[in-house]
Amino acid sequence: MKKTFLFILAGIIFTGSACKKAFFDRYPQDAISPQLFFKSEEDLSLYINGLLSIPGTGIYYDDQKSDNMATTGQLEIKNVLTGSPTSRNLTDGWDWDRLRNINYFLDNYNKAQVTQDVKDHYAGMARYYRALFYFGMIKRYSDVPWYGQTLNPGDSAMLYKGRDPRALVVDSMIADLSFATAHIRAKVPSGTPNVWAAKAAFARIALYEGTYRKYHPELNLQGTAGRFLDTAINVAQDIMKNGGFGIYDVSHSPQDYAALFNSADLSQNKEVILAYPYDANKSASSGGTGTVFGDYEQSPARDLIQSYLMTDGSRFTDLPGYQQLQFVQEFANRDPRLKQTIAWPGFIKAGDSKPYIQRLNKNFSGYHQIKGYTNTTDNIAAGSIDVPSYRYAETLLIFAEARAEQGVLTQTDLDQTANLLRARVQMPAMNLATANAFPDPILAAQFHDVKGNNQGVILEIRRERRVELALEGFRYDDLMRWHGGKLLTKQPEGMYFPGLGKYDLTGDGIPDIILVSQFTDIPTDDKKEKNALGINLVYYKAGSFGDNVTVYMKNGTAGGPLVTEVTSRTFLEPQYYYRPVPFTQTVLNPNLKQIFDWQ
């Protein structure tokens, strides 16, 4: 049975939200007397639970920042790519309140009258959260001030310090994670991170930093990349050998993959290292994820669909004329994970008796996301689906990628990692020799920094990561660490239509929609043309971007992929891999200097 975690202080109940800000709003640090509060394990537990932070349903929206999605949302990265970004208009992110709450605990936890192992567990949790905080900061700013203790108002030297080098900050993060993974307990309350979640985070951060340093010469840290890749290998291997996790494969069918994202209780799922537990019956609803489906802001990009292999393991992009294949054809004989991620021809929405006909709209791709979408008409059920915040599949891919980057990957490594994921969905195994002998030319052109004897397998592991973790919020960070920012300059495209006319979108060979020119009057329902099933065709006016139509096609009425936007994009390297310190902060503290050409 799923447990809802509750924390009580002075009659106030805190439920399992992503961050217990209410605790610190009601009990600010200057009102929590260390002598009175930090006395027992209950006090330590209450404070640490107030810091609880677990990725929730937001992971299903985070790929809007990447080349996996088209979006109508006003995202910072879109404004950076299409506007004139400066430190005066990029003002988010420079927020240190959470760090102050973490450091306040670390300054005072030793006062508790408890055994050392109890102290170490809670200190480990705090240091785990501090490492995660700084992970977000170095991804955004690279060099940032490191604060290892709570700042006092009179400490001008610390208040007005400049940016510390990235190397110092990351080494401090690694020290925090090393302590955390050595002292956090394996058994903790349901819905809170244990030692294996901390190790999963450790492996993720080590891989990120190792590959980032390897592929970003502007940091002048390439010589130290291997140390972090080795750490990623060692930590991931520890999880693989000692964590007791495995790939969820109970029915030996692709539905096992889908079950990771539509289950009401993941607490006993052997693949899930840490889940965010939702339960609408206990005032812990996710609110549902209906807006991920593809009609509100985001819609999957065609580039993502084209990255999935064929069922025989060959590349979709090797098919003759693959760029002109239409929606139904795109889903034929593909990696089964595609149909567990994107609504396919024949998909039926809950409450309907007939297949869903993809809704087309301006600025949308026409594809619809079902990973993270709860296909039900029951709002309680929709709000009670757990989210796999850390899953073992990622750990396996971390191990494989780090080993490949270090030049020590073997076929056995692949069989124990990426090929377990492929086997779950009955896909052919990845072969090390074949991958290196025949690198994907499209991926090679996209990631031209990848060279050497392992070029082909590194690219295939990157594909496997994109497919397995699609629409779970990983892609943007992956592009950043792989030096792939230029891929964001490609405007996301949608389904391909060869021109005006009738098209089947449900896979039965019978037309469902008709595209007409902007000069054609759409008839009333009683006069619309019917298909062979006696159902009215869905009419859309189609043309060029900006025409008075609902569907934008690249070549206007002559067809092409659907166009989601036309504003040109620019990615300045290395500048746009980072963000500036907000201008107001540099005024308050002149020691904070801008780097990488930010003004």
Fill in the keyword field for this structure.
599 residues, alpha+beta, 4-stranded mixed sheet, 12 strands, 35% helix
Question: Can you put this structure into words, describing what you see?
Answer:
With 599 residues, this protein is an alpha+beta fold. Helices cover 35% and strands 8% of the residues. The chain is built from 22 helices and twelve strands. The strands form five sheets. A four-stranded mixed β-sheet has the order 8-9-10-11, with no helix packed on it. A two-stranded antiparallel ribbon has the order 1-2. It has a two-stranded antiparallel sheet with strand order 3-5. The longest helix is centred in the first third of the chain and has 26 residues, at 116-141. The model is unreliable at 1-28 (pLDDT under 50).
